[in-house]
Amino acid sequence: MVNDRGDTGARATGGAGYALLVAAAPGGRQRLMDAAGALHQLAAVPPAALLGTAGGASVVQLVDPADPQTVLTHLRTAAAHEGPVLVYLAGQLTVDTKQRLPHLVLARTTPRTARYTALPWHWLAAELARRPEGSTTVLVDLVADETAWPRLSDPLLAGRLLAAGLTLYGSLAPAPPKRRTAAPLYSRAFAAALRGTAEGAPFALLHERAVAEAGLGGGPELLFDGSAAAVEAPAAEAPAAFLAGAPHQPAPPEPGDGVTRVVEGVVTRVADGGAEAEWAAPPPRPQQAPAPVAALPPAAAEQAPPPGAVPDPHAAIFEAAHAGRHSEAASMAAAWEQEALRSAGPRSGEAIHWMEVRADLARLADDPARACELWMAVADARLGNGEAADDPDVEGAVDRAHHQWQYVQDPARAQALAPFLISLRGRVPGRRPGALEAVRRRAEILEAASRTG
Predict the structure, then answer these.
(1) How far is CA 348 from the centre of its chain?
(2) What pTM, to 2 d.p., does this model score?
């Protein structure tokens, strides 16, 4: 459900703000938090007070969204706003079974389908990374399910996976005991702080008051105080495919910055090297630096490491992509795909994986036509391997191809892609009614325009 509201009571100075408030949770026994209840606390705050903007504000609420693409569309709208932006997320986190990356659970998410029905956290980071520094705040009230908490309970890893590149405030707690639902304590306290504090109070002050009011600090929860925006994950330690959506990070934090973990009343400040550790900043990277040997498959490296010693290449590939070196990133991924084709075959899991990586790189390079082509190739390969049309991997590939096709602006290119997409949609209709009809309608419009043009 989407609810838009605006504030016409503009102050004398300042620009308008934009707030995206998302409360997401699955149904039934899998629901771990009263996310909608959390949203109501902030939604009751006047829009201008919510963002502290003199020019008023627009607020968009998403309650129990079911489709990650819908949430992504709203994130892109927020990211395109010229004034201050607040993104609020309430609900629960899980990790997908394949890459072990954090996802925000949505209404239709199950443990088996998290990779395709939940919102990947790195999508959020990637969209907001394009905004001017200091213009965006992310506020969270989250619980981590039993698959996510073992990873995210580590403050250093949580900082890398969740806070990197973001100005992040809020609370992350483990799941409550079975048959119980967590209350949105942080959200209630933050809303109360907004109502009881002078307009325009900084988020850091509001966060401190919310933590104190909610009585947080005596359990295992993690508290994000906005100082982790500059945490950088070293490429050699980044988990596989994490940087597929994470932005290139700014300078390292000053000593003591990072994620605050409160356990039994003891506050620990964690930076990359541990509590109170010095941060050694790496030397500046040349804008057109050549691909490191570790980012290339053994056959492409001049001096290949011994077998089993090749580091995971995903970090270097996506670091290049987010630095704007899209050709370099695509070349590295293509080299790994060729190695997979040579060693495992054209429809092997390894080859299909690298096609997926290349499709995501095309998306990051703002080439939706190429991304559509590659996702269609992924779907065709999986179907050719005998995977069922309703398998989440197959459905996900076709859904992504369809989504990228909608962004192809060149009519001729879109028209050329339409027949194969229609064929795939006929075999893999997906779970959204009318998807096949939507492709056919646009294809007919494109064909008619080409005739009249």
Answers:
(1) 27
(2) 0.54
Confirm if 217 and 191 have CB atoms less than 8 A apart.
no
207 close to 189: Cβ distance less than 8 angstroms? no
Q: In one letter, which amino acid is 68?
A: P
Of the listed ranges 29-43, 56-70, 175-189, the least confidently predicted one is 29-43
> Please, which contacts does 372-376 make with residues 24 or more away whose CB atoms are closer than 8 Å?
372/401, 372/402, 372/404, 372/405, 372/408, 372/417, 372/421, 373/417, 375/400, 375/401, 375/404, 376/401, 376/417, 376/420, 376/421, 376/424
User: Given 3-state DSSP classes, what are the helix, strand and coil percentages for the chain, each rounded to the nearest 5?
Assistant: 45, 15, 40
Q: What 3-state class would DSSP assign to 330? A: helix
Q: Residue 44 and residue 321: Cα distance in Å, rounded?
A: 40
**Per-residue burial over 108-130, b = 16 or more CB atoms within 10 Å of its CB, e = otherwise:** bbeeebbbbbbbbbbbbbbbbbe
Burial class (CB in 10 A: 0-12, 13-18, 19+), 391: middle
The predicted structure's pLDDT at residue 139: 94
Helix, strand, or coil (residue 267): strand
Buried b (16+ CB within 10 A) or exposed e, 362-374: bbbbebbbbbbbb
Q: Under DSSP, is residue 57 helix (H, G, I), strand (E, B) or coil?
A: strand
Q: How buried is residue 248: exposed, middle or buried, by Cβ count under 10 Å (0-12/13-18/19+)?
A: middle
